[in-house]
Amino acid sequence: MTWQGKPLCWLWWLCWFSVALSAPLQAALQQQLSATQGVGAASFRALQWHSKGQWQLSDHSVLQASWQLHEHNQTAEVSPSLRQTVASWAEVQQLALKVQHGAWQYSAGLLAPDWRLTDTVAVADVWTSRDLRDVLQPQSLAHPAVRVSWQGNGVLRHVEWIWTPQQRSQQQPSGLWRVAQQPVLPAMPTSDAVGLKLAGQLGSQRWQLWGFQGHKAAAQWTLPTTADAAGSWQYPAQTAIGLSWQSELGDGWQSRTELGHIRLPTEHYLHWVQAMEYEWLGEQSSTVLLLQYSQTWQQAGQAPWLSMDMNRQLAGFWLGRLQYDPQGDMRQQWQLEWSLGRDNGYWQARWQQRLGDNHQLDIRWRQLHGTAQTLFGAYRQLDGLDLTWRYWF
Fold it and tell me: What is the pLDDT of residues 337-354, one digit of tens each?
């Protein structure tokens, strides 16, 4: 659920909501305030407040909530395709009542289901409606939904069924990341969605089988069916089935694989993602390397001419992250992240340092490349340095 407008009004309302509920109930609240300043060509200011909490209603039920407010002010027009803008929004990321009864759990409210085993690109993210208002830091949007899950032991360890009366569409880039030629997309059609996941373990191997029927959360341009008709942006119905597998290979290596078959009204295709992760453990330090590659294969029909689906746009890209923690306590981290395709991509370097128990400083440098018509090339003049201060309370 999203509110557009003056974020400070919602900030005060949500603060009051947190305090009001925390008094009569056993509450566990965590608040985070972040302020970011962009330096150089990507000159901007951003303010974000994020809160999450859990309230114990009884021995068997809890209320969980998570929300954020964001204000983004681009202070300079950096190119003809990128315009000066101010964007602000408030987003409820989760508001759900959960009831536990033995091995069964029942949930209802605003849920953000996540079936993924891989990062960034994932075949199993059929429930994931992306919030792309910050392109390089996407988040998941919540659906109004009900969920029934079961936990067990043995080969089959988890069963999960989810139904929503209305899916949410993907949020388009905003603020600094909004381009002048960004299309105006229609609303998601009124339609429900349902999914079932089975998960288990064989020794050190984890597996998932899943199925989903609903709509694509990302719009795609559909060509006209007759000569006198016009093309249009649509959220096509989709039926998807898939398998996810995670293996411990020894010597610090871990493999995660996702394979799915996606059927749309005008096409169907296979989607594969492979991720490899390696961790070096020093006397105190920790170093993690993540590499990921994905690809799609058309089985029938043709791929859409234009699609907002990040999974399809990143097919053929090499994604990676190298992270170093000198003390192994997450108080200081060095990170290098990249996403490289044949004709466009980006990389960013990041350093973060905890300052006491409640403060953290992040410094990030990003570099984007490609022509103006490519995914990351449209933002190639936003190379620059970001400074972010975070405070927890």
Answer: 999 998 999 999 999 999
